[in-house]
Specification:
226 residues; alpha/beta; Rossmann fold; six-stranded mixed beta sheet; 7 helices; globular
Amino acid sequence: MSFGMIRIRDVVMRLPSGGRPLTILDGVTLDVAAGEVCAITGPSGSGKSTLLGLIAGLDRPSAGSIAVAGVEITRLDEDALARFRRDTLGYVFQSYHLIPTLTAAENVAVPLEIVGAPDALGRARALLADVGLVDRAHHYPVQLSGGEQQRVALARAIALDPGLLLADEPTGNLDSATGVQIIELLLALNRRRGSTLVLVTHDEALAGHADRVVRLHDGRILNGAA
């Protein structure tokens, strides 16, 4: 599916801290083109995950605007934001965020069931096959390794074929060899589906797989804003 670019203009994010505001992002302007793989890097506390959460509409900036696929999400109310997230993007978390009482297949089926897709479990098993886990479909998260849990989370994130995939330190809890496998899988799935991928990582080697690397430091972009 085709997908418009991400357009971020003069975004500021401040949070209260000990009686005075703490600036997390300070005047960030960034465009991401349709189909691009963009890695956001920087030291801990530089604002990487905050920026990704703003693109996803999980938080609202203190100032500035964010448009995704031509929709200015900073103007949407909570209901509209929820619909936007459901229809437009998939999100991969560092800590997987799987539901412990559901099997791998049931976890992947959740977004499909929410939209009333037919044969949600069957489609979930097909998605697990895409990430090499069809034989683990009936296992619960506690029975899976970290790499396997992240594969389940990735299958869930692409279940509704989103035009935008956001990944927040998707290899952060994994050993280096497993992390390489996850990033290769993430990139292969993204190429196959033609979606836009924004990846937050502190790992320069992983960032090197992206089309472009954007570096954040103290809430500001050091390069790659165009």
